[in-house]
């Protein structure tokens, strides 16, 4: 699963959740936006925040709410639970279970 922050219409950044059926990896992909723009649009969407250029935090409940309606796999909910469980074992899940730490990658073409 990928959470993308990209330049949208009129150069206003937008956030999209894509590849929702691939729960073996999760990262934040930033297009041609500044870190500040990415952080702002993530917060406004209620999906999370950017800590720095390499690390973001995504809200578990909001991410699931955004992704699940797009899911095609019959066992998606079980796969989701497995992904969150795995993240917890790796230390990528907040103590309260509300957010996931994710790696930031560039989605900018060029």
Keywords:
110 residues, alpha/beta, six-stranded mixed β-sheet, 3 helices, 6 strands, 31% helix, globular
Low-confidence stretches: none
Distance between the termini: 23 Å
**Cα gyration radius (Å):** 13 Å
Strand order of the largest sheet: 2-1-3-6-5-4
Describe this protein's structure.
With 110 residues, the chain is of the alpha/beta class. It is built from three helices and six strands. A six-stranded mixed sheet has the order 2-1-3-6-5-4. Strand 1 and strand 2 form a beta hairpin. The longest helix has 15 residues. The mean pLDDT is 93.
What is this entry, summarized?
The protein is an alpha/beta fold and 110 residues long.
Layout of strands and helices, then pairs:
Elements: E1 2-7, E2 13-18, E3 27-30, H1 35-45, E4 48-50, E5 55-59, H2 60-67, H3 76-90, E6 99-106
Parallel strand pairs: 1-3, 3-6
Antiparallel strand pairs: 1-2, 4-5, 5-6
């Amino acid at each position: 699963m990928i959470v993308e922050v990209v330049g949208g219409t009129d150069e206003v950044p937008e956030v999209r959740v894509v590849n929702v059926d691939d729960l073996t990896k999760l990262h934040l992909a930033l297009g041609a936006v500044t870190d500040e723009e990415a952080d702002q649009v993530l917060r406004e969407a209620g999906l999370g925040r950017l800590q720095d250029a390499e690390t973001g935090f995504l809200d578990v409940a909001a991410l699931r709410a955004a992704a699940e309606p797009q899911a095609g796999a019959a066992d998606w909910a079980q796969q989701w639970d497995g992904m969150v469980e795995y993240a917890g074992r790796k230390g990528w899940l907040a103590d309260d279970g509300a957010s996931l730490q994710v790696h930031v990658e560039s989605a900018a073409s060029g």
